[in-house]
Automatic annotation (TrEMBL):
Pfam families: GDNF. Keywords: Cell membrane, Glycoprotein, GPI-anchor, Lipoprotein, Membrane, Receptor, Signal. It comes from the Eukaryota. Residues 25-105, 149-229, 239-333 form the GDNF/GAS1 domain. This is GDNF family receptor alpha 3. One of its GO terms (molecular function) is signaling receptor activity. Its main location: membrane.
Amino acid sequence: MWLALLLGLLLSRAGDFLALPRSDCIVAEQLCLLDSICNATYRTLENCDLAKTRFIALDHDSRVRCLNAELYLGNSSLLHCKCHRRMKRQEHCLRIFWTVHSSMTDGYFNLETSPYENPAIEEHWKTDYNELAALVSGSQLAGDATNPCLKATHVCNLSKKCVRLRTEYASICTRGVGSEDTCDRRKCHRGLRNFFEKVPEDFTRRILFCPCQDELCGERRRKTIVPDCSFQYSTKPNCLWLLDSCLEDHICKSRLADFQQNCQPADMSSDGCSQHNHAACLQAYMGMIGTPMTPNYISNSSVEVSLWCTCESSGNQKEKCDQILGMFEGNKCLENAIWSQMHQKLTGLERQKDLYYSPSLSFQGDSASTSLASEMSQVAEVKTQQDTSEHSSLPMASSVYSGAAVSWPSLLLFLSLLLSPL
Ligand SMILES: *[C@@H]1O[C@H](CO)[C@@H](O)[C@H](O)[C@H]1NC(C)=O
Ligand SMILES: *[C@@H]1O[C@H](CO)[C@@H](O)[C@H](O)[C@H]1NC(C)=O
Ligand SMILES: *[C@@H]1O[C@H](CO)[C@@H](O)[C@H](O)[C@H]1NC(C)=O
Ligand SMILES: *[C@@H]1O[C@H](CO)[C@@H](O)[C@H](O)[C@H]1NC(C)=O
């Protein structure tokens, strides 16, 4: 009813599709189905897409039909529609997006085009994170301040939604671990996606990107996503195999396109990212968790992340394989984004509430000065670590880095070829 009203309004106000603002693909599809020509065109594209995913060769007439359908849609709002990261019926929306986009001709489209709305446009809702965090700092638990990962979990435990969804994936993902039967990876992935989609980012970002000083904390951080089930397989597959299984899945393909768009490194950029948006890159990284291409920390003592795959014995595809791996390993944009998140200063509100909720003045004084001192030494420590590692391994680091920067466009080309029509 409401939708019909909205559609009527949109139709009456916009004579042609071009005049419409960018809309979500579900609305754009509805709009298209109301128009008999657009409807027919869209149905044609669906069939082209279907044939493509089943690797059925099209005859000449069908190809022409698909091409004409593309050209016609090039005029409609469907072409410019996007999906929201936390929307209902997200899979349906993404399917529409890829139906329209997978049929584009070579070079017209590449995986750099995220199906997701620009993060800045999506509404941000206020959370009670700071107040809950202050409760934790002010309580006896402040003794754990040296383990920020534990603290982030405590804060999560104070939010009903956060603790519920975290407990949910943890119990799914740990089921079967250690016993004869293996865990259900698909369910574990779904649980993780649910957690990262539904829990406000204030919580998820701090849980995943907590700054650690020791290995105990680092181990906790590495285990956040229950890697035994969600990340590691018995043997490491080839990264191109991992990519293939990702591209077969609308959600994974979409998240990868989003990651590629928002975490694309740029040599000349001071923040390391071509989009200059660290928050968007972290959001895109978190979007990959719970897909067949789930990334994770690979050690207890560093913040390096990677995929569970290898490029050994890739033969003549070695270069392409390294490019896939290089999207996560040694990606300057992603590294910088994680680094800034981990060394983010407490917000003014957080500090203020810290004082306000403290049960005892002397305790508060101690913990505040200790944590401030440790925070500062930590920043200094990581800075020197970064500096030394950059100096000591300069030739290698720079060659890897420039390699990644050069190969990124060709990776896009490669991916677009994979996705190109018959
Ligand atoms: C759209 O196309 C489908 C399949 O061809 C058809 O069943 C349906 O009636 C059409 N709808 C409109 C509004 O034209
Ligand atoms: C695109 O829309 C314009 C104006 O509505 C129309 O004149 C033109 O023929 C359309 N092009 C195609 C390929 O349908
Ligand atoms: C958080 O809650 C879960 C489930 O209730 C519990 O197992 C876990 O120990 C709690 N963790 C912290 C750090 O309080
Ligand atoms: C992390 O630490 C645990 C406990 O010390 C150890 O068993 C595990 O192998 C370590 N993992 C990595 C990836 O370093």
